[in-house]
Amino acid sequence: MAEPQAIHLKDYLPPAYLVDDVALKFDLDDHATRVSARLKMRRHPQREAGLPLELFGTALRLTHIAIEGQPLDEDEYRLDAERLVIAKVPERFELTTEVIIDPAANTALEGLYRSSSMFCTQCEPEGFRRITYYPDRPDVMATFTTTVIGDRERLPVLLSNGNPTESGELPNGRHFVTWRDPFPKPSYLFALVAGALEKVEDHFTTVSGRQVTLQIWVERENLDKTEFAMGALKRAMKWDEEAYGREYDLDLFMIVAVNDFNMGAMENKGLNIFNSSAVLANPATTVDANFQRVEGIVAHEYFHNWSGNRVTCRDWFQLALKEGFTVFRDQSFSADVNSAPVKRIEDVSVLRTMQFAEDAGPTAHPVRPESFIEISNFYTLTVYEKGAEIVRMLRQLLGAERFRTGADLYFSRFDGQAVRVEDFVSSMSEAGDVDLTRFMRWYAQAGTPVLDVEGEYDAKAQVYRLKVRQHTPATPGQPAERKLPLHLPLRLGLLDAGGAAIPLWLDGESRGTDTVVELFEAEHEFRFERVPSAPVPSLLRGFSAPVKLRFPYDREQLALLVKYDEDGFNRWDAGQRLALAAIEEVMLALQAGAEPRLDPTLLDVFTHLLDTPSDDLAVLAEMLKLPSEAYIAGEQEAIDIDAIHQARRFVTRALGEALEPRFRALFEANQSEAPYAPSFEQIAQRSLRNVALGYLCATGGEKALHLAQHQFEQDRNMTDVRAALTLLAHSDAHQLGDPAVKAFGERWAHDPLVMDQWFAIQVTRPQPDVLDRVRFLMRHPAFSIKNPNKVRALIGAFANLNRVNFHRLDGEGYRLVADVVIELNRLNPDIAARIVTPLTRFQRLDAKRQSLMRAELERIRREPLSRNLFEVIEKALA
Ligand code: PHE
Ligand code: ZN
């Protein structure tokens, strides 16, 4: 077999032929679904005449092909495993084909597949070619008419994009529905769903007064989990009208929940298909964080209707055009309807732990990649989250108003078109009247930029000089010396020794107490005047750019920022820096075999936080959380897995012991009798309460564990139950943990989404016996390797969140994950290539672990690999 080849952005050519209109007919059957297609095609006006027609197709059995009704002879076309090429076609023609596909055998979950009792599709990025022969690329946009035929009994509901136009009975107990989508769309937005589904329905009246019917389709047992998503959808529709002036354009908007899905959800025109984990929610089964995730994803997919569907991507290199912008939009929405500072803290945490790790690893790539082997591998944190940070910087640089003008311009100018990142940025540059030439480098340059900042105070002149240098470390294919300086906004302020904000004077101009300076060059110096005393700078407020900021803070300065900075985000960040320093100090002691101690400054700051009434409980809860092991690891030159784990535990326990009465009081003060609501006020309360319980349990005291047990038994809502169960299950107190785990598993055996949580809780146990538990649970009847949610809950959670055990020195953790990857490579290449990620992150580990991890990757490489896994493994072992 030939090695998979890379595709390059620089080789882009428009398609030789366009499709104006498509008529599809599906005759649904588990193993032999018949798909007939009629494509109205014409030559692309910018391409020369006489070019062959190239259509993509994978795993299709062609039974008929004709042009203008005239069946083709076998020598008139060429077929291989991926393509159908017709040497000669007219300028304008109608192509008809018929193929047979096997949805029941489709374990890759791309194209048409079975999930539980239903049929559904996933076409982004290149799944449509598993349905019919087609120029399956986003710059080919057509209107679609789709007729779905199925068994009336088994498949009473037949859905596709757009509006239903016709339906009726057919012989042999079959029936059909025809759907028409009037908006031209790329094939990746096509969708079909068929099954025994039930719906909840609601309505939304748009700004211009049009009534839109909203439907959420689920299996009957999930009808009691749809209310929250419906509310979220209406909030999102309203928000998009107000914040971006975007109105919905069809009369019907549908969401369907499916159990087997590779990603979170998909924005198919008028028919969003959701992983059930990203839409179903109710208080008994869903934790607060998942309510918020549902709200964010419902909004995200809805927002795509404009940023993605009405204006789409020219090619897949431009993926961040729709994803970065849409993530930014859903982040802004969630910030507006919840606690804005906490939303920012959460988003930055994800970026700094996971995206920074991607940037530092073997698959690092620019937000707009220059080449790929398998595009599915590029639905990454870099494209999504860093892509969103880029849009956020644009908003910071332009200001809210001009940013909105730029967005309006972009939507109106490119409506109905498939465009590039340049089109978005030039709309912003035009509306904002700013030069964004250098800014474009953010899309092209991989890696996390580092800002090295130094401050120098001249008491006599009352001048404070801030020197800022930036550089971006090397990434695969981009050596450090080729990295160029980036254009970025640095938001900052200065505090005096008492914590008061110092008025800012820059170049003779007053800037209040919070300002933004722009960097373009490798080095800048900012000279602040009229500074009465040596200041403490508060830098990168709100995380104004996705960079690593280095400043030689001492612990007292960090404590000052935690207590007094006017920027909530930086108060939190200073606390994280302080906690990190305290943990690192313990790591050093442990490595030297010395007695570790709890940093008194950290203790002082925690005491202050617990004793000072706070008006933002949600932020307080975040401030009381220590940085995760993954984040700590990301900050180390050389990663010592065990020292990180031990040191973090030590600091948690020491804080718990030193502040026990205060945590106890916090725990009790945040007991609420109100009926559960996923409101941010209540979420903050529960979060505080459970953070407190965590510190109490970390002391290992029996009293604390009984509090957890009591909370578990009270059974008020899943948030509190799960928090308590996790503490019990992760403690050494088997006599408490084991029965609780067992009871929970039996009670919820019927609910797959709760069982996912049950799996994750067990496989993240820090104790060394966990590996047997993972193996045991892989044979549990509720587990299936074919279901991505199960694989993530069991294997993903183990490999990513249970660092001490995944990285066991006997290599058993690595071996287990590699075995799963090898099996998934045959079943679901997309998930295989994602689940392997932790095995590729060996670069800063010790030699022993590096060689064990490499050996597992080599073992995987000896398999006949899918394109997805081939690309990741080659890059990791390069
Ligand atoms: N486009 C989807 C989103 O961002 C993600 C997705 C990609 C879903 C590929 C399925 C397959 O919401
Ligand atoms: Zn998206």
From TrEMBL:
Its cofactor is Zn(2+). SUPFAM superfamilies: Leukotriene A4 hydrolase N-terminal domain (SSF63737), Metalloproteases ('zincins'), catalytic domain (SSF55486). Residues 447-550 form the Peptidase M1 alanyl aminopeptidase Ig-like fold domain. InterPro entries: Aminopeptidase_N-like_N (IPR045357), Aminopeptidase_N-like_N_sf (IPR042097), PepN_Ig-like_sf (IPR038438), Peptidase_M1 (IPR001930), Peptidase_M1_dom (IPR014782), Peptidase_M1_pepN (IPR012779), Peptidase_M1_pepN_C (IPR024601), Peptidase_M1_pepN_C_sf (IPR037144). Residues 228-442 form the Peptidase M1 membrane alanine aminopeptidase domain. It holds the Pfam family DUF3458_C. Its EC number is 3.4.11.2. GO terms for biological process: proteolysis. Belongs to the peptidase M1 family. Aminopeptidase N is involved in the degradation of intracellular peptides generated by protein breakdown during normal growth as well as in response to nutrient starvation. This is Aminopeptidase N. It comes from Halotalea alkalilenta. The lineage of its organism: Bacteria, Pseudomonadati, Pseudomonadota, Gammaproteobacteria, Oceanospirillales.
